[in-house]
């Protein structure tokens, strides 16, 4: 028995398009961060450890693609977690890509065009941006989240705060 392992699974590329929730127009240069963890069984439940991260920026059409892990055999690598952020917009962080697939986030109004998730982001007022704060990526090596840190720094400077240093 291999506890915490999936016998065989294939992880395709993750594709999406980020649009403005009000206008429906594509948003360029949104940071999309894919995170993978390994799960290890413990007496108190699963323990999770960072495995890998991949970043992408949306293009002028608001589209992005992050390469999946491919064929995984007897793997304890969990499905990709996704973090989406652009200064001036809401931050979206999900424990798994799966809620997009299942449309389990009704308030987000995720649509699908083939295998591409169409994800609306709401533009925030400065008051909302100050209240929400910055995305968190604790435990992830900073060299794996350079695009995210750059975007967080844009947001911090807009809000009159000091940027994060590497």
What does this structure look like?
The structure is a single chain. The model has no long low-confidence stretch (mean pLDDT 85). This protein is an alpha+beta fold. The longest helix is centred in the last third of the chain and has 13 residues, at 146-158. The chain contains 3 helices and 10 strands, in the order ββββββββαββαα. Strands 5-2-10-9 form a 4-stranded mixed beta sheet, with no helix packed on it.
Q: Could you give a quick summary of the protein structure above?
A:
The chain has 166 residues and is of the alpha+beta class. The chain is built from 3 helices and 10 strands; from the N terminus they run E-E-E-E-E-E-E-E-H-E-E-H-H.
Write the layout of secondary structure elements.
Blueprint: E1 6-11, E2 14-20, E3 31-42, E4 45-57, E5 63-66, E6 70-75, E7 81-85, E8 92-94, H1 98-102, E9 111-113, E10 116-121, H2 126-132, H3 146-158
Parallel strand pairs: 2-10
Antiparallel strand pairs: 1-6, 2-5, 3-4, 3-7, 7-8, 9-10
């Amino acid at each position: 028995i291999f506890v915490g392992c999936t016998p065989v699974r294939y992880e395709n590329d993750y594709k999406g398009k980020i649009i403005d929730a009000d206008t429906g127009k594509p948003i360029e240069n949104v940071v999309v961060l894919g995170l993978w963890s390994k799960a290890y069984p413990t007496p108190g439940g699963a323990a999770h450890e960072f495995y890998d991260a991949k970043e992408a920026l949306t293009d002028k059409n608001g589209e992005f693609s992050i390469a999946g892990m491919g064929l995984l055999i007897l793997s304890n690598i969990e499905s990709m977690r996704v973090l989406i952020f652009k200064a001036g917009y809401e931050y979206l962080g999900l424990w798994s890509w799966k809620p997009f697939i299942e449309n389990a986030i009704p308030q987000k109004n995720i649509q699908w065009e083939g295998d591409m998730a169409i994800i609306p982001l709401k533009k925030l007022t400065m008051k909302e941006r100050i209240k929400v704060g910055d995305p968190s990526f604790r435990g992830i090596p900073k060299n794996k989240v350079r695009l995210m840190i750059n975007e967080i720094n844009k947001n911090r400077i807009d809000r009159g705060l000091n940027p994060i240093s590497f």
